[in-house]
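Suppose you are handed a protein chain with no further information: no name, no annotation, nothing but its sequence. What can you learn? This example shows the usual starting point.
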Amino acid sequence: MLRIDLSDLPVASSETARHLNRRVILNLIRDKQPLSRADLARLSGLQRSTVSLITEELIEDRWVVEGTTGRLPRGRRPTLLLLNQRRRIICIDIRPQRTFLGVSDVNGVFSFEESIPTLPDPQRAIRQMVSRLRPLMKGRSEGPFEGIGISLPGRIDYATQRMIFAPNLKWGPVDLKTPIERETGLEVALENAANACALAEIWFDRAKTIRNFVTVTVSEGIGTGIIVDGRLLRGGNGMAGELGHVQLASDGPLCGCGKRGCWEVLASNRAAVRYYFESAGRPARSRQQDLEFGALLAMADQGDTLAAKALDKMALHLARGVRMIVAALDPEAILFVGEFTAAWGRFEPQLKTEVQRQKISPIPVTLIPARDGELTRLRGSVALVLYKHFGVSFPASVSA
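A reasonable first move is to predict its three-dimensional structure. Written in structure tokens, the prediction is:
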């Protein structure tokens, strides 16, 4: 949340005003493109001369390009402006089993995607990522790369930019930013995967009109990104939203964080696979190696009773955790990201039932499955990089 030191309020300068006006124009173009300079002046309330000066700067900086001409009943036909889609962002989504890489334009449209195994040693994993990024950067000449966004299954120390908590990844504290920036020459932005997904939903219009919502990412673990009054909630130590490690069953299975019965050990993809093997009487040692969650979904669709029961049990525990979110945060909406959304018809009834049991207000909570499933996490990495140019920035005495 925004924190302001009232003893050291900055004075707004002409440079600050110019900087904010530039971001206003950029965001209007991003949101309304294509549109004319006259449209920008009308929508922003800025003088036409100011709009013209800023748009010329943005064109010179290759953030904006001129497109086709518009049509008017009379007078000169205006030239329409839009974002430069040749400007590229490299996206990385690190997960315990696989790491996903992609190249996106400024509108979140991907021109390249691939995945590689996530290596158990973080330094080897960094070298592997860099070895894939170098030819990727050299082989794509369609436009400049703006930066690299990385979403992580853990939490970041925002002062040092080191990953400090990722129990499912089992890497320990590690600096990803410095070596990747050194080897690629591009600035790196890091963020927890659930937070990145929440930013993506705001950035790419899914939740643009919703001021208070929670994103729940479900994969090997469970993460939550919390948006309060339109802003990402990080907490005093950057750990806000670590609800996957709230204990729901004191005698439950051991979690990667060292506690028992955490929400994620009861309701994650891994939990569903565990439920399946427990009901089938199979040994524990080969559970994760024998069956991937996507295969479990397919088996349930094909009529496998044990697979269906495992998913139903996962849905029940997922819904009980969502009750905790509703009681604590009273969100307008909850967005769900993960492979399980492909079977939304199986999970939604249980989620709705538990939410209604918890909800005190007569206003319902909207439950939304991510429209593009797992790709949301990569798109969140795009938002991390774009926020530097399009988001509101604050002076040193104001932090988010």
